[in-house]
Design brief:
By secondary structure, this protein is an all-alpha fold. It has helices spanning 2-8, 12-24, 29-41, 43-50, 65-95, 102-117, 122-143, 150-190.
């Protein structure tokens, strides 16, 4: 008997979440039994189900859609930036393997894929790319530490920033065009 009483005890919030499923007939028999038992014991939820407002039922705050979307966008952007960092770092690392021409193909491809997914990724990608250009210049100077000169470092820094920005810009343009083409085909399908 005590077990039956324990089964009937579910929080009002859980009952309210399950009520639409029971009303639509898609709830499991166990869930339906829990809701019916709770409604028999709880006048506030019973009044809510019948459509009358019971003052005893606390109103749950409505979720803030803006905050939820911002949180999802931040998480999505973080994943894209992580992918960008890994992709660009692999491209730069390929430049040190003796096949420096790989970066010319790899960097625009990474930019194009990420920009096609989200056109707002241009500024963060540019910052990552310029950061990697600075890292690249530092690595080049560290490799030739005995012949360090400020002019060589600045030349490597400037040429790396320009090269990576141009390659990234080409990738951004390709990605933006692909995104535009994708959006245009979705609009044509909707018509």
């Amino acid at each position: 008997m005590k077990e039956a009483a324990e089964i009937k005890k579910i929080p009002c919030a859980v009952c309210r979440d399950l009520m639409p499923l029971v009303q639509d007939g898609v709830a499991s028999p166990e869930s339906e039994a829990l809701v019916k038992a709770h409604l028999a014991a709880c006048p506030a939820c019973r009044a809510l189900r019948q459509g009358t407002d019971a003052p005893a039922v606390p109103q749950l705050p409505a979720p803030d859609d803006g905050k939820i979307l911002q949180k999802l966008r931040r998480r999505y952007s973080t994943h894209l930036l992580l992918l960008a960092f890994v992709g660009i770092a692999v491209g730069v690392a390929l430049g040190y393997t003796g096949s420096a021409n790989w970066v010319i193909l790899f960097l625009p491809c990474v930019w194009a894929v990420l920009t096609c997914r989200d056109t707002g990724m241009g500024k963060p990608l540019l910052l990552f790319t310029l950061g990697l250009a600075v890292l690249d210049a530092i690595i080049k100077q560290a490799a030739f530490l005995e012949s360090f000169s400020l002019s060589n470092f600045l030349w490597n820094l400037a040429s790396g920033c320009i090269l990576y920005a141009v390659l990234g810009g080409i990738g951004w343009l390709i990605g933006w065009l692909l995104h535009y083409a994708k959006e245009s085909t979705h609009e044509n399908k909707d018509e």
